[in-house]
Write a structure and sequence with these properties.
The chain has 161 residues and is α+β, with helices and mostly antiparallel strands. Helices cover 37% and strands 25% of the residues.
Length: 161
């Protein structure tokens, strides 16, 4: 069940969902796929084939970029990141990872057993600590543009206080 909350200070209404759209620079970095399709097909099939090649390159680029656009969703019972699901009853704590701390959290400070759901174009994240004897994963690191809000909502909806 989806629950909607409203921030008392800002008045912002949040339904627990966040879509990770790729950054504009990421979209622009796939522009060569369009020209690649055009220039590969041009000498073989002429301009009509080149336009088809450019269209195929553009469709390929859009398909790849849309596959990078995950959704996070927080319900009353679980936290979903893409297809991964985390029941909130195993959450034992949540930390906010600020922009400056992210490099250490994903590098030297990272436990190799951690579940990572990060995107390079999102600078902040949350670390969700788990207390599940059946799962060796100590925590999840999840990119988010609203780390304080997400951490507060996970704390509120889970058993960690």
């Amino acid at each position: 069940m989806q629950s909607v909350t409203q921030d008392r200070r800002s008045g912002e209404v949040w339904d627990g969902r966040e879509r990770w759209w790729p950054a504009v620079t990421t979209w622009l970095s796939w522009l060569p796929a369009v020209f690649g399709g055009l220039f590969v097909a041009l000498p073989i099939w002429g301009w009509n084939g080149a336009l088809v090649g450019a269209l195929v390159g553009a469709l390929l680029a859009v398909a790849v970029l849309l596959s990078l656009a995950w959704t996070t969703e927080l319900t009353d019972t679980e936290f979903r990141v893409g297809r991964a699901r985390l029941p909130l009853d195993v959450v034992s704590g949540v930390d906010v990872i600020a922009k400056g701390e992210r490099r250490n959290a994903l590098g030297p400070g990272l436990d190799a057993r951690a579940h990572l759901a990060v995107r390079s174009w999102i600078g902040t994240a949350v670390r969700i600590h788990l207390d599940d004897p059946a799962d060796p994963t100590p925590y999840w690191v999840v990119s988010t543009r609203r780390p304080q809000r997400l951490a507060a909502e996970i704390r509120r909806r889970s058993r960690c206080r």
